Amino acid sequence: MYLCDRRPLPINYNPFLVFISDPKKEYNSQLIRSTNLIISSLRFMKSLNANLIEPEVYHLDPKKSDTKFFRTITGALPSSISWYGAYLFKAFPLDMSQYQHLFNTSRIPKRDADLLFHVDKTNYITVMQRGKFFKLRVLDDNGNILDAPTIFSCLKFILDKPSTEEKHPIGILTSENRNVWADARGHLESIGNSDVLKTIDGAIFNLVLDDNELTENEFTNLIRQYLHSDGKNRWFDKSFSLIINKRGIAGVNFEHSWGDGIAVLRYFQDIYKDSTENPQVHPGSKTNNCRVEDYVTDLVFNLDDKSKVSIENAIQKFDSTTSSLGIEVHEFKHFGRNLCKSHKISPDFLMQLSFQMAHYKLNNYFVSTYEPCSTSAFKHGRTETMRPLTVEAKGLCVEFAKKSSHSKEELILMMKKASDIHGNLIKEAAMGQGFDRHLFALRLLSEKIGKVPAIFTHPSYKKLNHYILSTSTLSSDVVLLGAFGPVVPDGFGIGYSIWADRLGAIVSNYKENTDGSGLISCWQASLNELHELLKL
Hints:
The chain contains 16 helices and 18 strands. By secondary structure, it is of the alpha+beta class.
């Protein structure tokens, strides 16, 4: 599905996450934080390659299984039967096959269907600054991480290097339509750029050093920087890019075909913890006497007039696209997860209900809604669609809209019933009992053999899969911001977060087609209504 889609990656597919700042303010310089995050990323990679990172586990009874005792027992069992030990604790190991493509992976544009490229081992990352590329060696000949002062010295060399913005930033081409980029890349290879492109493709990951000085309070501008920016200092094809600005605000923009947010979030959380609790460079750290030239190589492209025209066209198109995108963000501070749980109502259900209420307030009708559910309980599982707009959720929206005569207690009971149904749908989707991926597979097979059943061309089926509200959450205490673009031109992309005492949402939309500010205002009003109902 992903590799065949010809739409550009940024906004349409690549999501982003932004870290909260290091709690030690003096560590939030671009140079210090970049060095520490690189080293923590390499530690994570080496632990992953050595099968040493703790497995992902779904705990059916967390009080029983999410414990040190459980980890000790299962860790002592042979790997061939450790899953059975976990099963006895009602804990289920999840598939982690996506992690193999987290590092050393790129999506390469090809006509009609892209290629996911992966190499087993390289010893370098790529670094982008002002649209220019550098190859930075970070592992020695034995695969060990270079000492921190050397990596620190090399990054300082790159940051201190006098340079202007790249006049013809090649990275902008990764923002293009995939067929257009495939043709442009083919031409680049034909004029002598194959080696430099292979170097970028094979890098462990891509580090982006941005010149902006945005602070963590400038939410809207930060969202734009990490979701799309101007595209000139980005390489959207890489499995992920670690992006760090002048003030040390760091985040990740990741390509989606190789894996889902659950794998990126694990990496994201682990490197935040490691880089803040075990930093390898500090304020006052000095450069060493290494020969920087042995570790840092400029990557230079040979461009002809045709390539330069392609770059200029891409810049103009991307500017037009990003200018048409609306971004709204709001944090609701009156309640969060704790209040929901006190009523035995799912916090996720409440958030989804609030989005339905908001859209109904704004437009007075209901629309197809998407919420992904991980199917990593199965080998190579990705996601199943969970559809939050149930009959019960719709009924609640109508009751709230008409200022229902139901008592407070009756409305809460209705919410509990709808919440239970929401929870059951999530469980069914996670256990492979959804219908969307099944029908999707049948449609692809029928198209392949040339016999397409009428259901797949029926307007109702097309409407069902036209997601006006595309929603997703990756809640974590170390995530400051996280979002993605709308999946259809007349839709909304809603990235939401649920904390103990507050709720947050980022809404993206195309301004000429939909009203993002109206939706976020209606969402605030809906949460106020829900808070009034539930507050103790």
